[in-house]
Design goal:
With 139 residues, the chain is α+β, with helices and mostly antiparallel strands. The protein has helices at residues 47-53, 76-94, 99-109, 111-114; strands at residues 6-14, 28-36, 60-66, 127-129, 135-137. Helix 2 (76-94) packs antiparallel against helix 3. The strands form 2 sheets. It has a 3-stranded antiparallel beta sheet with strand order 2-1-3, with helices on one face. The chain has a two-stranded antiparallel ribbon with strand order 4-5. Strand 4 and strand 5 form a beta hairpin. It is built from 4 helices and 5 strands.
Length: 139
Amino acid sequence: MARRPTTFVYQARWSNPYRPRPADCPEVRAEVRVTVPAGRGAPPTPEEIRQAAGPPGSGYCVAIYVDAEPVRELPLEARQRLRRRNLWKRCLGRWPLFAHDFYRERVLGRPDYYGPYDPDEWSNIRFERTTRGYLRQLR
């Protein structure tokens, strides 16, 4: 899978914490977006950004940001299923004899967080302990 190019955002931005920004000065004087191939670092600061920032002590600085893609979110049902699975593993690890009781109590206590309670959800799934003591689902 090919990696996507990276976009760097250069800004001449007000950054003097000791002096309020004058009313006639904008928050961001200039902004330039530079796209580079994946794996490359940030290119040098564009000259127009340096000129817009002005001399040291003017109140403006050069700010560099990476324009990242939004994070993919899981649907609510998938998140609730993961939460129930993790809760089941925690209950099974702490209280193996009473895991069903504690699991039911917690899921019914927070239905909006864990989703609907199904008493047979984990009855046919087995977990084993790894060499480090964690619970892993058998496939």
